[in-house]
Amino acid sequence: MRTIGLGAVPKVVRSYHSYEHDEDPFFNKESPKYRILEKAMEFVPEYGFQHKAILESSRTFGYSDAIQSLFHNGTFDLIKFHLVRERLRLTEVVSKTEEFKQLSDENTKVKYLVKKRLEGNVPYGKHITQLQTYLVLPPNIGEASEELHKLSDDIRFLSGDSANDFAWYSKRLSLSTTYVALETFMAQDKSPNYTNTFELADKRLSNLGDLGQVYNDVEEFLFYTVNSGLNLIKSQATRG
């Protein structure tokens, strides 16, 4: 925080931009951990976001099961890999997609990138509830929240928002809560190719400045994920 002039009202500025995000060491594409996690995503449609997907992946490379010691966070390593990979893919969309380059205004670009991010969930659609549940468990919620805000920051920055004042924080909050509400809806969407989810995205993203809607989104997300989390804990306890 810094001030401008004697006695001036403090001006809050954000301390980083999208391109300054540091990525986790495991996101080194040359590392065994990266290769195993990338391959494991091919098993997620069958096994869900579970350690079984990592185990099956490592076996395809001929590794012994002892290599599982690389994954200190177990299932959350796989989930975080998915979150980071899909966020980074948005940079490729901006640089390589002619359709995006032809968009002129910031809000249209935000809509486009949010829907592209949601498309990244489609292959794993039936497991989104499971993913969200793990994200709100106490050991994971800190990193999960940080990654969510990185996503919102990247989308805003890639859409042309270079603001660095307090308004940026409200925009990020609005986009973050809208995104989790859309993902929550997607987890329950039975329409073909998630048509209803993408239609809802167009509607919700037209009102990003509506803080009343932000509070509704937060309430909806917390109610859904807390109940899902309780169910997951019960199911794990039952399996022992």
UniProtKB/TrEMBL annotation:
Keywords: Lipid-binding, Mitochondrion, Transit peptide, Ubiquinone biosynthesis. GO terms for molecular function: lipid binding. Residues 143-211 form the COQ9 C-terminal domain. Pathway: Cofactor biosynthesis; ubiquinone biosynthesis. GO terms for cellular component: mitochondrial inner membrane. It is found in: Mitochondrion. Membrane-associated protein that warps the membrane surface to access and bind aromatic isoprenes with high specificity, including ubiquinone (CoQ) isoprene intermediates and presents them directly to Coq7, therefore facilitating the Coq7-mediated hydroxylase step. Participates in the biosynthesis of coenzyme Q, also named ubiquinone, an essential lipid-soluble electron transporter for aerobic cellular respiration. This is Ubiquinone biosynthesis protein. GO terms for biological process: ubiquinone biosynthetic process. PANTHER family: UBIQUINONE BIOSYNTHESIS PROTEIN COQ9, MITOCHONDRIAL (PTHR21427:SF19). Belongs to the COQ9 family. The keyword 4Fe-4S does not apply. It comes from Cyberlindnera jadinii (strain ATCC 18201 / CBS 1600 / BCRC 20928 / JCM 3617 / NBRC 0987 / NRRL Y-1542) (Torula yeast). Gene3D superfamilies: Tetracycline Repressor, domain 2 (1.10.357.10). Pfam families: COQ9.
